[in-house]
Design brief:
Blueprint (H helix, E strand, L loop, with lengths): L1 H4 L22 E5 L4 E5 L1 H9 L7 E3 L5 E2 L7 H5 L7 E7 L4 E8 L2 E4 L4 H9 L12 E8 L2 E8 H14 L6 H18 L1 E2 L6
Length: 202
């Protein structure tokens, strides 16, 4: 009976292209466009897709670029028109649906905005980062904080990482102190990595 009642060991993560075990906790990610999900990848497989310019197959490598737009025109009023109940949202182009998708973190996970695209298109027009997005693999990340809006282009996998962290930490109506601290640490990391898309540092 002991083997049935003992806790199961964690499942070993493997590359979803070649099945090689993934050592350590940090590895590349792919977007599985058929399943609309993230897949883990070893460095050689991710690099192979990078070199082949894999933008049309089932799997697409998530790139590592972080960009900021200090001159964006997204203001607090534009944010309020989104009627998103939290202070963070991200947008990415879903190639299977052939449209932009707007999501935000919630206690239930990634929640899709139910607004019509016409409601948030003016917001996207207020930053040149929106036109730089690689379909499926990069996201426009926005945060309203202290009456201003931050605007970054980031790898899409870190947006889902943020969703997971918020879901794990969320307490009460507003998320609680631990979730807010995690959110601040996350955006500090993004600011440190992001460079000004016009060529300078963010």
């Amino acid at each position: 009976m002991r083997r049935f009642t003992a806790p199961r060991p964690p499942r070993e993560e493997r590359c979803e292209l070649c099945a090689v075990p993934l050592a350590g906790t940090r590895h590349r990610h792919l977007v599985d466009t058929e399943q609309r999900a993230l897949a883990c990848a070893c460095d050689p497989c991710a690099q192979l897709l990078d070199r082949s310019g894999g933008t049309t197959g089932r799997f697409r490598t998530v790139p590592g670029r972080y960009l900021s737009d200090p001159g964006h025109q997204v203001d607090a009023q534009a944010w309020e028109r989104l009627r998103i109940p939290v202070s963070v949202a991200f947008f990415f182009r879903n190639s299977a649906l052939d449209r932009l998708v707007a999501l935000y973190p919630s206690p239930a996970g990634a929640t899709e905005s139910e607004l019509e695209p016409e409601s948030w298109q003016p917001l996207l027009a207020a930053t040149s980062l929106a036109g730089l997005l690689e379909p499926d693999v990069e996201a426009l990340l926005l945060r309203k904080h202290q009456d201003r809006v931050e605007c970054h282009l980031v790898p899409v996998d870190i947006c889902y990482e943020l969703v997971g962290r918020m879901r794990l930490r969320w307490q009460g109506f507003d998320g609680g102190a631990q979730a807010r601290a995690d959110l601040e640490a996350f955006f500090t990391h993004v600011r440190e990595r992001a460079r000004d898309h016009r060529g300078g540092r963010a």
